[in-house]
TrEMBL record:
It comes from Oryzias melastigma (Marine medaka). Its EC number is 2.2.1.1. Belongs to the transketolase family. This is transketolase. GO terms for molecular function: metal ion binding; thiamine pyrophosphate binding; transketolase activity. It catalyses: D-sedoheptulose 7-phosphate + D-glyceraldehyde 3-phosphate = aldehydo-D-ribose 5-phosphate + D-xylulose 5-phosphate.
């Protein structure tokens, strides 16, 4: 985070320079000599939305990295938690949104962003996450990854970032209860690989659960809902952050807001129970 103090006669103001950071990135990109990246906390890009909007209108090729997204920011509190960033970037017509879930996919997202036209946004978390992918894993814009599956899967779970790790933990736990879960990493939220997700959801009898470290409005769940609006035979459930959080340990906040492994497992049990009762 950077501050600049501006002094003028009779006035003293302190301004955060997120807007100027994006403006400079747009200017550098206009010369078409460099691949431009601008990085700050995800929540700070909200201050620069006018600049981002104009970047899209002017067909600028810039790359933005937003860290400290979601509840995993933890003790620093809600003002620094990026919980509406995906909603903001999804409204930009030229935007590509990467949501990597480990170090390998983050590196691949940076490589892909550097060669992708338009406004590219890479959403990252604060906390350390374990490695999911091998270093030679191949990634593409708009291509989801099926990271956990079996022939007996009963529910498809779509999750990214910290919630992908929670979903994998929930799937391992539910296996002990003889409940099989398919877990998909979308990798990019925009464009969303709707075909892959829908095809795999058909294999789990239309049952799908999205889990995201973001507000309900404008994130992964709504992107999935939009993709499935003309489809039939699906039972979509969503887990997301429903109200403004407080400071706390990341694992405590994930649990409090119902997007941790226990909440995912319980949501899956409820979906299967509802399906059984419907019969």
């Amino acid at each position: 985070m950077s501050f600049r103090t501006v002094e003028s006669p009779g006035d003293r103001t302190k301004e955060i320079i997120c807007q100027k950071r994006v403006s400079v990135a747009i200017g550098c990109a206009a010369r078409e000599r460099n691949v431009v990246f601008a990085s700050t906390l995800a929540s700070f890009f909200t201050r620069a939305y006018d600049q981002l909007r104009m970047a899209a209108i002017s067909e600028s090729n810039i790359n933005l990295c937003g860290s400290h997204c979601g509840l995993s920011t933890g003790e620093e509190g809600p003002s620094l938690m990026g919980l509406e960033d995906m909603a903001m970037f999804r409204t930009l017509p030229t935007a590509t949104i990467f949501y990597p879930s480990d170090g390998v996919s983050t590196e691949k997202a940076v490589e892909l962003a550097a060669t992708t036209k338009g406004v590219c946004y890479i959403r990252t978390s604060r906390q350390d996450n374990s490695i999911i992918y091998n270093s030679n894993e191949d990634f593409h814009v708009g291509q989801a990854k099926v990271v956990y599956q079996s022939k007996e899967d009963q529910v498809t779970v779509v999750a990214a970032g910290v919630t992908l790790h929670e979903a994998l933990a929930a799937a391992e736990h539910l296996k002990k209860e003889r409940i099989s879960v398919r877990v998909i990493d979308p990798f990019t939220i925009k464009p969303l690989d709707a075909k892959t997700i829908i095809d795999h959801t058909r294999a789990t009898r239309g049952r799908i659960l999205t889990v995201e470290d973001h507000y309900y409005e404008g994130g992964l769940g709504e992107a999935m809902s939009s993709a499935m609006v003309n489809e039939s035979g699906f039972n979509l459930h969503r887990l997301a952050v429903s109200h403004i959080p407080h400071s706390g340990k990341p694992h405590e906040l994930l649990k409090m807001h119902g997007i941790d492994r226990d909440a995912i497992a319980q949501a899956i049990r409820k979906m299967l129970s509802s399906s059984t009762n419907a019969k």
